[in-house]
Amino acid sequence: MTLLAAFLTPADAAPFTTPAPAFPISGYFIRAGGSNALNADKLDRIKSAGGDSVITPGTRLKPAGWAELPADCKIGSVNCGQAATLGVRVNRVFTYSDGNQWGKKALACPRDQSIAANGKLFTILVVPASGSGCDSSDNSYDVIVISGGTTKAASATVSLAKAATKRKMRLYAGLPIPVMRNDVPYLPDLSYQNTFAQFTDRYLRYQKSVSNVAGLAGFYLAVEMPLSAGFDSVLTTYRIQNEAIHRIMPTRAAVVSPYLDARVAAGGRTPLAGVADAVRIIALTASGVNLSIAVQDGMGTGKGGAYFGNEEGTAVDAPASTIVGEGTWGTKYLASTRDYFQAAAAGVAGTTATLWANVEGMAPATGSNACDTNLRGQTTLARLHRQLQQVGNAPQKLISFMWDTYYTCVGTGTPLEQQLRSGKATPVITDSTFTAGTGAVAITGYNLYGAKVEVNWTDAAGQKLSKVVATDYFDGSFGARRGQNPRLQTVMANVGETNLSTDGYYTISVTNAWGAVSDADYAKHN
Fold first, then answer.
1. For residues 161 and 169, is the Cβ–Cβ distance under 8 A?
2. Which pLDDT score, from 0 to 100, does residue 15 have?
3. Which of 154, 217, 266, 395 has its CA 20 to 30 Å from the CA of residue 515?
């Protein structure tokens, strides 16, 4: 079926409602603030910018020694970890601090402790070094000392979940993650897999007791992996945590965000041919959980390239050149972002997982786009529009890394949040069909209401043609009615009967009812 045939039949035409302009991205990675007021303000700003979801990063469960435990964490005059484990053999010691207060509602076993000292909160969990539950068959235990912040600070997930509930938004809270291996630093250290699994259980049971509200939509599995083979230990962490979610909070969803590396010169590059299989393998870790796979587009790190086929011979932009060097998109990258997302869509097909896109809200640092103290630099809305265009129609939701502080930093230009608000009506074209025999042009994208369409093409005789026409059909619920991204829209226009060269591209630009003009070049092969 052609894209045009899939767009519309008279029987499924939707009732017309005039839409308001809206930015396509609906979810953002954030960091929790230290107070309820800060979290409420942040969610208000995100919601007013069109967001309905927030995601917090995970925190590492870190192996430690006795000397590395917080000095204030004492029971009597004894180190709290040692005091809680008197009479048993300690296998390993860990620390954890995620901005949650934990406390008495996290206690499940007789040796667990919750204390306050010098205005600081600490929770000590004692778990069997092997097995599960409270008692070890060989009297060997691991001790986890959790720093819960101060007695006056808000508990991060509780605060955000309540704020999200009040605003009818969704929070995906970051789950604990293991440290990475010393010998292979891109793989998680599963030498304490049993303790990690038990701590994931304890974390979820704690959240069930304190944050079991509608705004807590699910959890973020924060261990990253590329869309490549050879990352079984990462898949193990996904499986452990999805199984725990399904067992303890079965109505909650999960999100993972794997990355791609399309750089030709990268040692760990992501071959396009393996992407579908890699996505499918991730999907199979769902274990009964509603799992969304939010593929990172790589444009913020220089690992991905947002370009169309007619731009393969065009020089990479300045931010990308700081990572891959001077050259063209086609010589510096294995394939375009669009190609990778089409492969990812093929990978989720037939699984229970859903494809999202993590559209990176930063750019490689150039020396002239500083953004606070961040490793990456400030990007522009126009560059972000290119990224949105490239991920196409396959992702059911668009999220972005990250609000704090890539969207809010003043940097050396206008903050991205401000650009987003002033440019939220800008049309973005994600796909099209041009049926030359009838002149019909069908376009999908965002902010397409009231569009005038400019189409440029070359006919079979080699003549370059251009025409500007008004659209004669608009469907604002195109994505929602087809189970795709609910913000996707479609318009149709007709440039009159013509023909196309067999080897070339046609380009489209749009001016919508609000007078906004698409600022990302769109092209498609004839």
1. no
2. 59
3. 395
